[in-house]
Amino acid sequence: MNDQSILEQLSRNADQCVKCGLCLPHCPTYRVQQDEAESPRGRIALIQGLAEDKLEESPRLAAHLASCLECRACEAACPSLVKFGSLMDDVRTLRVRRLRPWARSLRWAWLESLSSDWGTRAAAWASKIYRFVGLGHLVERVGPPPGSRLRAYHRVAMQLDRSKEARATLSRNKDVESDLALFVGCVAQTAQPGLATAVCQVLGRLGYPVRIPDNQRCCGAMHRHSGFPDDADQLAAHNAAIFADHRILATASACAAELRAQQDLDRTEEICRFLTGLEWPQDAQLRALPARVAVHEPCSHRNILRDGSAAYDLLRRIPDIDVIALEDNAFCCGAAGTYLLDHPALSATLLAPKIEHLKRLNTQILVTTNTGCSLHLAAGAREAGLALEVLHPVELIERQLVD
């Protein structure tokens, strides 16, 4: 699609908005900033001005468009069914194309490093060294303040790992004979290194062996939402070939949403909902857990998959568990893909209420179905001094399986 076609599509889709303002109370950035330009309605007006050549590119315009989380809470509230996510993807594509070649290449390289196997492995090793030599503790004592970009990188570095157990699971299951195939994602292998193992253990107990195809790549969501749709499409085509003829299970809600939106990958199923739909055999009993467990609902699960109850339904299989929703689940936690690194100050502001709610709940376990959210929430809880485990629901299920 050329630039003119994108402009025409932007104008056409933006014209669907009737400017009613019903989206404003649901927008996290508007809630924080109380600025019309930081609302869906305001951003649509800016997009219309840009598409119709009534507004010129400017740093201020760029900032308002870049600060959108693409949580798509506005879509769920919109009576006109405006495809706001598509609008934001298209305008970011246009803006990336207008960047100078060197700036565009730098952004592309950055995304590749975040989403590739070599990049995540390098990040895991660098994080281990960072912690081992004591730099992490030094930064926490005298380092950059919360909300700074360097602090954001520090928070991520304190969480990343890639365990031998996770690597063994990926290797062991790559040739398993099964019509089920697990999409493990890119960042999840370092941010949630035990998750693939937990999924394989649970599915195995239920009588569903699962294959983990080798050479799978990122789902493409980071590229698509950052203005590189062609790269996202290439990743989708690659994964479609890797997962051909398999039922696809995704552990991260954002990955499930991105894969499901692609024609050749639309059979993707989110793991929690898949597990709740199975008949569990008698030998797959779960130990009681007389504890309160808080559930964080990622925007991708709530607003795109539109199945926010999946984690609750799965966890209620555990006897004696007290499953409660984290307050303000309707609002984004601020992770939003690369957002926690690109916009650290606003990301930290959006995270703060979640951490305060967790303090009041006095729970020791928080579950979430998205990798970026897990990383973000765990970092915030650790910095707040909370004795809190942040797990995927399937990790908790695996822990409670009776031997």
- In which range does the helix fraction lie? 40-55%
Q: Beta-sheet strand percentage?
A: 5-15%
Strand order of the largest sheet: 5-4-6-7
Count every beta strand, where a strand is a DSSP E run of 2 or more residues.
7
Any idea of the CATH topology of the domain at 292-400? Rossmann fold
How many helices? The count is 23
So what's the overall shape? globular
Structural class: alpha/beta
What radius of gyration results from the CA coordinates?
A: 21 Å
The description of the largest β-sheet is: 4 strands, parallel
Span of the ends, CA to CA: 55 Å
Topology as a string of helices (H) and strands (E): HHHHHHHHHHHEHHHHEHEHEHHEHHEHEH
Give average pLDDT, whole number: 92
Low-pLDDT residue intervals, each spanning 5 or more residues: none
CATH level 1 class label of the domain at 292-400 = Alpha Beta
Q: Concise description?
A:
By secondary structure, the protein is of the alpha/beta class.
What do you see in this structure?
Helix 16 links the parallel strand 2 and strand 3. The longest helix is centred in the C-terminal third of the chain and has 18 residues, at 344-361. The chain has helices at residues 3-14, 28-33, 40-51, 59-66, 73-77, 84-97, 101-115, 117-132, 135-142, 149-157, 164-172, 188-191, 195-205, 221-225, 229-242, 253-260, 271-276, 299-304, 310-315, 339-342, 344-361, 371-383, 393-400, and strands spanning 180-183, 247-250, 269-270, 292-296, 322-325, 365-368, 389-391. Helix 7 (101-115) packs across helix 8. The strands form two sheets. A four-stranded parallel β-sheet has the order 5-4-6-7. It has a three-stranded parallel β-sheet with strand order 1-2-3. Among the domains are: 3-98, Alpha-helical ferredoxin (Fumarate Reductase Iron-sulfur Protein, Chain B, domain 2), CATH 1.10.1060.10; 292-400, Rossmann fold. By secondary structure, it is an alpha/beta fold. The termini are far apart.
